[in-house]
Amino acid sequence: MGFVAWIVVGAIAGFLANQLMGSKDGLIMMVVLGIVGGLIGGFVATSLLKMGTVDGINVESIFIATVGAIAVIFVARALNRSGGLRRGTS
Prior knowledge:
Blueprint: H1 3-21, H2 27-48, H3 59-82
C-alpha cells in the first residue's frame, strides 16, 4: 500500500477508533494511532489469524486498522492507569 493510502486509512481508522473509545486525541494522534493500529491489526490478521489484508483503501483494510487502533488505545490507557506511561512530573 502506498504512503498516501496508509495515511488515509490511518486517518479513517484513527477517527473511528477515537469515536468508539471516546478519546479526545488531536488529528495527528488520530492518524498515528490509525497507522500503528493498521500495522498491528494487519500483522495479527494476516500472520496469526491467516485472514484479511491491509492492501488498499477498502472496507476490510479500514476495519482491520480500526480494530488495531482500538487495541493500541486500550493498551495505552491500561499502561497509563498502572503508572507505566506518565505525562509530566507534577
